[in-house]
User: Fold TfoX/Sxy family protein from Agathobaculum butyriciproducens.
Amino acid sequence: MATTKEFLAEILDRLSGLDGVTHRPMMGEYILYYNGKIVGGIYDNRLLVKPVKAAISCLPDAPYEFPYDGAKPMLRVTKTNDAALLQKLLCAMYDELPAPKPKKKKQ
Assistant:
């Protein structure tokens, strides 16, 4: 089951208090970025984030789930109605996330 546009809109609305939150469609799902860094994604109407130390601290009881077959496990954010928590989570994670890879130059 692919993520619905309504669920995406709800998550983006709750993150609207942060500048720099963007998304990109990817095979019926969505990758979430914060200031250019990948923080996680929305898969089958589930918000999943990378399991960096800050995310684990913010979500100590979060279950690990796979976004799709063959992927690494991620933390599932179960309290998606809590805008303050979602914004705090992304801010806390930011410094631990890898910098974006440079784009390849077209020849």
Notes: Helices lie at 5-14, 53-58, 83-93. The domain at 5-96 is CATH 3.30.1460 (Yope Regulator; Chain: A,). The first strand starts at residue 21 and ends at 26. The chain has a mean pLDDT of 94.
